[in-house]
Amino acid sequence: xxxxxxxxxxxxxxxxxxxxxxxxxxxxxxxxxxxxxxxxxxxxxxxxxxxxxxxxxxxxxxxxxxxxxxxxxxxxxxxxxxxxxxxxxxxxxxxxxxxxxxxxxxxxxxxxxxxxxxxxxxxxxxxxxxxxxxxxxxxxxxxxxxxxxxxxxxxxxxxxxxxxxxxxxxxxxxxxxxxxxxxxxxxxxxxxxxxxxxxxxxxxxxxxxxxxxxxxxxxxxxxxxxxxxxxxxxxxxxxxxxxxxxxxxxxxxxxxxxxxxxxxxxxxxxxxxxxxxxxxxxxxxxxxxxxxxxxxxxxxxxxxxxxxxxxxxxxxxxxxxxxxxxxxxxxxxxxxxxxxxxxxxxxxxxxxxxxxxxxxxxxxxxxxxxxxxxxxxxxxxxxxxxxxxxxxxxxxxxxxxxxxxxxxxxxxxxxxxxxxxxxxxxxxxxxxxxxxxxxxxxxxxxxxxxxxxxxxxxxxxxxxxxxxxxxxxxxxxxxxxxxxxxxxxxxxxxx
Length: 495
Ligand SMILES: [Zn+2]
Known about the structure:
By secondary structure, the chain is α/β, with parallel strands linked by helices. The protein has two domains: 2-120 and 440-491, Urease, subunit C, domain 1; 122-328 and 358-433, TIM Barrel, CATH 3.20.20. 37% of the residues lie in helices and 17% in strands. The strands form five sheets. Strands 1, 2, 3, 4, 5, 17, 18 and 19 form an eight-stranded mixed sheet that branches. Strands 13-14-15-16 form a four-stranded parallel sheet. Strand 15 (287-288), helix 9 (299-308) and strand 16 form a beta-alpha-beta unit. It is globular and about 65 Å long. Mean pLDDT is 90; it is low at 1-58. Zinc ion binds at residues 126, 128, 165, 392.
């Protein structure tokens, strides 16, 4: 027993210190594994006091966690299974099955989850990291610290992986590499590096613009991202409602897509216009990071997507929905307000902000943009086009985590089932990203898990009833244990 605890202390040290800090600043510890955490803290203090106890000679005993008695929604779309259990060894799932059949290994931490629903951690396939301080957007805020804080927020909402789409500086690759080398305690990063933007057109962010003018420049840009280790290649084809002089021409987009494929990467595009969807499909695009929003897609468009296996990797309905409000409708929802500071809440609620948004020339366009986005997404889903779940959160007032739950709600409103929304956000996103060890609850996968107090299949809004979140087998702070910018008890209890 003592050896086990010492081993746990050894392997969980960063997390323990994080937990200890959390305790010190008065944040409530996760209700699920309070006992385990206390044990780790006590044993780590004991080990530190002993000095030198944490040596390479520590026996290689496995850290084992058993979760049991939950209803399993495994992310594949299979019907839910009651009275299930799973075993996690060193952060990976090693066994899943009936709670009646589970063999609890000696020394395992056991958590009983009767009445709860267990899902794979959610994946957001379209985010931008570290772009803001509060709701002020500026690339100068993009630091490892700001990105780490956002990844913790995603995790608090049960979003255990994110696909960043093209506005991150190169240090994000080392953050990703560090995560891959260990067991992250916040959302996993996947990244395209910097996306390809055509000079004079829409895309990217000021300060990170690497705008290309020729096919040769475009190919070099793609090769540079691939060489850094980009998970896929992103391009933007848009002119922001015609306000910019150009969109990326076919000569450039075809070069980007061809070069991405030569580098064995998928190419994914920001689009707005239906004619660009058609052109990009002729050029071999693999996925779209937004829906068509200028007109309804034709039956032929949808048939082509399906025939060519082109994905609607993200529909970003929450993005379009957010632009239809002068004042966002959820400022008083504790599921939202716990995640942002009082300063941000007051800025979002200000009359001046509402007035400014209302008087913007694009503001009146968005109700129709949202309608078309939902209609086109629904038509694709109905026809059997493959789709993921993605929000485009990260830019100003598009909030990490909260938007993913809003996105799934809007996807269901558009016409898919809660089960389909969950599959999109888990196994489908993992498949499109090419991440083989996340996205379902099965042996061999990471223990990235979302535990809910209510059934999300009867009401998709039940994904907000978060009981616990695990990343690589360890519990992380949830949104219901968060009270941003305030004392820990200032947000009250989970309703
Ligand atoms: Zn985006």
